[in-house]
Amino acid sequence: MPSETKRSSKKDVVTMIGLDFGSTTSSAMIAHARVGLNSTTGRMFFGYLDIIYRSEQVFTPFDNDRIDESVLRDHLDCWLRESGVRTEELFSGGAIITGLATEKNNVDCIKALVKERVGEAIIATASDPCLESWLAFMGSCGGLSRSKSERPILNFDIGGGTTNPALGLDGNVLATGCYYIGARHFQFAPGTYRLIAISDYGRILMNYLGIFRDIGDCLSNAERDAILDFYVEMLEAIACGNGNFIEDRAARAHTQVPLNIENPADLPVITFSGGVGELLYRYAQGQDLPETTHFGDLGIDLAMWIMKSRLLSSGLSEMVPENMGRATVYGLAIHSTEISGSTLFFPQHQVFPLKDLPIVGRMPVDAKDTRVRQLLALIAKSSCGGAIQITSDNEDHQEGLLRGPQVERLERVKALGHKIRDGIRAEHLSHDTPLVLIVPRNYGKSLGNYATDWRKISTKLIVVDEILDRNAQFVNIGRMHNNIVPVSFYGVQ
Amino acid sequence: MKKIKPLSDIHVPSPGPDEVYVTTLLDRQFDFKGLKKLLGAADISKAGDRTTELAAEDEMAREAARSILSDLTLQHLYDTPLTDDRGRIDSVMRAGYEIDLDMFTQIAGMTVGELKDQLLASGGAEIERIGKALTPVMASALAKIMDIHELVFIPRKIAKPTRARTLIGLPGCLSFRLQPNHPKDDLDAISLMVYTDLSLGMGDCLIGVNPSEGSVDNVSRILHHLDKLRRETGAPSQICVLGHVKTQLTALHQGAPVEILFQSFAGTESTLTEEFDVTVEFMDHAYTTMAERGPLAAVADQFMYFETGQGSEMTYRKNNGIDMTTCEALCYGLCRRYDPFMVNNATGFIGPETHLNDFELMVSTLQDHFMGKILGLPMGISPSYTLHSESHLEGQQMAVQLATAAGASFFMDVYLGTDRMLAHFVNSGHDDQTMREIYGRNPAPEFLRWAVERGIFEQSPDGKVTRGPHWGDPRQFIGSDSEFQRLRESLPAAPGFENAGPRPVNAVQRILRANQAVGREAVHSDLRISELTSFDFRILTTTANSKADHLRNPELGSKLSKEAAASLSVEHCDVQIIVTDGLSAEAVHHNVSELLPLLQDGLASRNYSMGQPILVPYGRVKLVEAIGEILKPQLLILLVGERPGGDALASRSLSAYLAIRLADSSSLKDAVHYSGNASIRYEYTLITNIYAGGLPAVEAGSVVAEKAMDILKHQAAGNRLEDILSRVEEIAAPD
Questions:
Q1: Quick check: B492 and A36 CB within 8 A?
Q2: Taken in order A37, A42, A43, A46, is the CA torsion positive or negative?
Q3: Which tens digit of pLDDT belongs to each residue from B359-406?
Q4: What is the DSSP string of B356-407?
Q5: Cα separation of A297 and A282, whole Å?
Q6: Which residues of B touch A144 (CB under 8 A)?
Q7: How many helices (DSSP H) and strands (DSSP E) are in chain A?
Q8: Chain B nearest C-alpha distance from A13 (Å)
Q9: How many CB atoms lie within 10 A of CB A222?
């Protein structure tokens, strides 16, 4: 006799893609993962990860203030061709545009090209600095942080245009930030310090430091050192939570999103990712670096300067993160998507995918009627529908030798279902308006059944369960694969 | 390569009528009709033989039988082959008669008792020579008249080295098969278990996985993964995935590295062919294929691996009136035909229906080891226990100590002793290292060299082997802390990697034992009916009168008691819900209060008529049909506790069996056509793992209710229903 929960086959294997378009380089990564149930958490999770394709890192094709669309198209085609993966095989993925790439006039062409070439599997396309910090941490230190669960880790993802710090503990990101510290604010003729490009933030810094150079000029060693000293001091100040330095005018100008460390007294282990991070670890492991400005920027110098900082470099040998230069793209491929439970509630399969749904609000399982009505009223007025996130209760701290996952109680699920049912009727929610409930534990089908009187109420209600509470503005839900759907958030707050 | 002798060339005497064996002890006379009865009565009393009424009724009867057996000549045993239920010599019995007839003529006149005395006085070489002249029944007869010391003393004098990539079974060596099973065949979890147990110095015998899903694709997938692990670690060993022999051969033909070919054997042809789906002729073909095409054909002297264990014939009721020990000996006669690399005896695995307690487990373990060794096999032993038996870790460990003293060639090594896939408990790598240290045994020589190079072991100039600096550290095989962490997360049942000497630290042991304690409580506790009164159950009884009966004999819980059956009559409801404890009363108590109201809400929403729900203590799955035939509902939903394994939470796991009764269904014709079974009466859909760590009750209620609606709507269950639903989805899906 067939078992509903034991069917396991190739169908459980999904393919995921990550695409990273940064200030300096762009790259792609494709992974296979097996979707299964974790018997400790009781949640669906990705297991047996297998990176099946890593592209070469290519320079992001800029043409002055624009992105060179035709070169970018060639790159995308090349990556897909080399990987041997067909678009329709992709389960989920993410693409991120970061740093200086976001400032180009035709930045939207990246999104359009990605959609054209990779299709609907891409459910996270974002230029969200905090998301980037989060992805870099997860791609670089997620496993490391869980293995050293007592040690806070501060990861600096240093690329061409930005530095994205993220503080994490036991695999969870606690705080993120974004600063305009990067290798490519000053670009040089390779092998020299003759300036060929200066970013807006580079000019602010030169003004602040009293350096009066322009394109075609050569930076003196003293001027270069002053720039690098500023960057390193700022990184140290971020790591120490030194508000005084950050309040400095130039530092403020270099801050997009400040990293707020709650308890600066507990110095975390510092790790690095991104292009500069990769150089740092190569050097720390005794490998030679290319000659200075070999890449036409300050990346190599910045790595050397960080090595000289005791504060920043003390953790280099203690913890070596994975993926370093490819942390973000790895994070995108593996961590940009969450997977639902396998017992969803939906009217019919064709409702998926659902794109760019606004999350109109969050409420607990035992929300009052008025709150339920208020959120349903917002969705009723939205032309594209919307989502409501059911928040997690604080996990009861369990003592003792054996512990298990917490489960929701029927009484509460039934009560919430009935409140939603009454709200749908009261707010005259249209049959065609998608109403998505995102719930943190495994009770999606039951909540949906009580909210629709066991499907007697005609409504486009979808309940996606086992998705942990994320305070975000929008959600994307991908196509169904073997009874699960990929879910990603953007506009994370 | 051994030349396989055609079965038709093996002479077996024609069977005659059953002889009546008679003797007296003081004023009490004993008679046993036929050799089968005599052999059964001569053994210690075991659960399986009690069920088939072969065990002696008391100690005097047993000794009377032993006394008669001791005085029978080997020629008499030779001349009295045991027949199947149709009076035939089956192929398994015939295979056992392939003996050294020249040697046999020298000993044929000896009685079984005299032979035992001779063996006790002989050296190893002489014992091995005599063993080649023995049929399996002779080995069984010997085992039944030997005490524990003798069962240890004789086989320890025999060595049976076999060679694949490693040479196992040398005197002074003790080898181990890694058994990194996983309930979902998760390759990451398998990797971590392999790394961990290799770091404990285990795996010199085999790295072998019992797959949870037996398709060719899956067997090949695991084989290729094990091959990768073997190459990456450099561990000298061989690999195997213990799928069906036909599956493995298909995988071999498709290029999978089937280095060692596995099959389970039984001691009667009807069990072998009807339940294990192989014939002796097919095994002959499999052996030849491996000899010609196996990846180790050029280096291995042996390449077959068989698993056996007392009781499988009895549980299928295909034992032909032969006791469990003798059936096991007959298995060994068949194993001997293929000169195997290893034979593993898994006594205790089935449960209390074959071996009730520690005593039965220990004696059977030693009997099987003795019989295998005397018949010339490379015997390994994996005494194991389940939580629904009355065997415990302590009894299992005593059996292992005795089997090590008796000279077993190898043992199993299951990660921390808990096989979550097969829900039983066996040796761990820590147990195995403890045995090596207590009894001064070493790994196979090739493996030892590798382990010394890695610092897993150290060897002094005088050859003494001790644990090395990297013993017990799986991290040595893993590239980074992150990767180690990732693998750990794939194996949630990993309470720790710290060791104290050759043992896991106390903190780890406490977690393992606590998990078992919760599981055992779940099995052995009774339903607390007073806590379930809110459901207005009608309480019925089965023919199992007690928990002990229920656990020992699955058939008792499959039938309603006469009183219960008489209290019911035809109701013709749409749905009848039945709740029973099965093998976990706690599964009922931890799930029903949430699941049942939800399920009833769902069914009520479609206005289905529902019979008053039924609660039955001591029930099994087959009960559903017993009730179905009386009440005649369209659909029966049985909620039953699953067999607990080594995970505390999963010990509270419930299954839902949804059985559509086809007799009155419009789809009976379709079901007959689909199944090819003209007498099909029920189709089933099964929803398992209903517990907090799997499908929680608060969601399971909806899942079961929706599936019930599908079944009633389409008048189909099981695969036929899933096919119908797929077609419906295809029609609904846009182009």
A1: no
A2: negative
A3: 999 999 999 999 999 999 999 999 999 998 999 999 999 999 999 999
A4: -BHHHHHHHHHHHHHHHHHTT--EEE---B-TTSB--HHHHHHHHHHHHHTT
A5: 18
A6: 480-482, 485
A7: 14, 23
A8: 12
A9: 8
Q: Average pLDDT of A122-131?
A: 65
C-alpha–C-alpha distance, residues A249 and A228, integer Å: 17
DSSP 8-state secondary structure symbol assigned to residue B272: I
Chain B residue with CA closest to A40: the answer is: B492
Which amino acid, one-letter code, is at B198?
L
Residue among A159, A188, A180, A163 nearest A297 (CA): A188
* Nearest-CB residue to B692 (from A5, A42, A349): A42
Question: Of A380-394, A432-446, B568-582, which gets the smallest average pLDDT?
Answer: A380-394
More confident residue, B631 or A116: B631
Closest listed residue to residue B295, CA positions, set B242, B239, B346: B239
CB contact under 8 Å between A3 and B687, yes or no, is yes
pLDDT in tens, A258-285: 998 777 667 899 999 988 998 999 888 8
Give the mean pLDDT of B575-580.
98
- What is the structure's pLDDT at A246? 73
Q: Is residue B522 within 8 Å of B652, Cβ to Cβ?
A: yes
Question: How far apart (Å, rounded) are the C-alpha atoms in residues B16 and B22?
Answer: 18
Q: Which of A10, A144, A465 sits opposite B481 (nearest CB)?
A: A144
Closest CA to B193 of B416, B386, B510, B513: B416
Asked if B99 and B133 touch (Cβ cutoff 8 Å), the reply is: yes
Token pair belonging to B539: 């309480």
Mutation for A interface: B225, B482, B658, most A CBs within 10 A: B482
The ipTM of this complex is 0.78
Query: Nearest-CA distance from A217 to chain B in Å?
Result: 45
Rounded Cα gap, residues B347 and B437, in angstroms: 25
3-state SS of B136-186 is HHHHHHHHHCCCHHHHHHCHHHCCCCEECCCEECCCCECEEEECCCCCCCC
- In B, minimum Cα distance to A149 occurs at B485
Return the DSSP state at A457.
Answer: S
* Contact criterion met (CB < 8 Å) for A9 and B213: yes
Whole-number pLDDT of residue B485? 86
Contact of A440 with chain B, judged by CB distance below 8 Å, is answered with: no
> In the 8-state DSSP scheme, what is residue A3?
B
Interface contact flag, A1 B514, Cβ < 8 Å: no
More confident residue, A100 or B355: B355
A443/B696 Cβ within 8 A = yes
Check residue A90 and report its DSSP letter.
E
Q: Which residues, 6+ apart, have CB-to-CB distance to A110 below 8 Å?
A: A21, A67, A72, A95, A97, A101
Virtual torsion, Cα A416, A421, A424, A425, nearest 10 deg = -140
CB atoms A402 and B648 under 8 Å: yes
A5-54 pLDDT per residue, tens = 333 345 678 888 888 888 778 889 898 887 776 655 556 677 767 888 98
Cross-chain residue pair A443–B695, CB shorter than 8 Å: no
* Residue A37 in contact with partner chain B when CB distance is under 8 A: yes
Is any Cβ of chain B less than 8 angstroms from the Cβ of A149?
no
∠ at Cα A230 (A25, A182), nearest 5°? Answer: 5
Contact B719 A144 (CB under 8 A): no
**For residue range A171-205, what is the model confidence (pLDDT) as tens digits?**
888 888 999 999 999 999 999 999 999 999 999 99
Residue-averaged pLDDT of chain B: 94
| Average predicted confidence (pLDDT) for chain A | 85
User: Do the Cβ atoms of B355 and B46 come closer than 8 Å?
Assistant: yes
